[in-house]
Amino acid sequence: MNNWLEISREKGSVVGIDGKTICGSGNAEHKAYHVVSAWVGEKQIMLLD
Q1: Sheet bearing 45-48, strands edge to edge
Q2: pTM
Q3: Which has more pLDDT, 12 or 23?
């Protein structure tokens, strides 16, 4: 598991997290793919995994 959310940030700051499932990406061999992103407003940083 990635620890990419363990970044240095101020107490009380907000990290917006969003997740999406890519439609049509699943098939008989594997489940659908997912994309997760996090937005750190104070630093204006977008993290994707």
Answers
A1: 15-21, 34-40, 45-48
A2: 0.52
A3: 23
CB atoms within 10 A of CB 8: 5
CA distances from 46 to 11, 30, 39, 42, 43 (A): 19, 28, 5, 11, 9
Widest distance between CA atoms in the chain: 45
Residue 38's pLDDT band (cuts 50, 70, 90)? confident
- How far apart, in whole angstroms, are the C-alpha atoms of residue 23 and residue 42? 32
Paired with 36 in beta bridges are 19
Check residue 8 and give its pLDDT: 62
